[in-house]
Amino acid sequence: MDYYLISTSAHDRSPAGVLVEEFVLCEDFTAAGIDSAEWGSETGEWLAAPEVSRLIRADGALRSRVTPAGRSEARDAYARLGGGELPEEEELRGHFRRRQPLPAAPPLRLGSSDAARARRYRILFAGELGADGLAAAQAALRLEPTGDPRVVGKASGSAGGHGFTWELRRIGAGIAWCVDVTARLGAGSLDTLGALLHHHRQAVREQGLIPVTVERFA
To answer: DSSP labels for 42-72?
Structure first.
């Protein structure tokens, strides 16, 4: 699960509420939707929050009040705000009563058998990275400079019998970021691919960006 602390204003970052989200993934690890629930100190109750999930990705002003957090940080904030002990994740899922769907399209089907064993994914993020966050993201993803102004860095590796290449890109000026992943599939379990996509999504989220979706292009 992903946790976010929500403040009352961009100037006072003291948490006033907690947002919990979970991406709903398809069999090929693309995102079909986001389940979420929000707890606020004013209401003192958990409410389904698909509108909040949508707006923090579309509205920069609201996003400036949102801080990605780990479960321990969310637990501490929840206790300080008078919520008591943060519910276990299975209990939190009981508050996911309305899903925020994400648009999906079937990937392109290329002709050759070699191409059929390759997949291209894009993990899209909303927000802006400062210098420290960018440096931390580059380190977490083990990126090397490319010399291409459109690409912050690129890396490759292999695991579980598969080969992977990934790169961090800026989309527009202060609009969005993405991690593009190419997977050359071998005979191993596809769980390795799912784990890599999850790792990259979390590695960038930890630097303050908000993941929007996981798309597949091929």
So the answer is: TT-SEEE-HHHHHHHHH-HHHHTTEEEE-HH
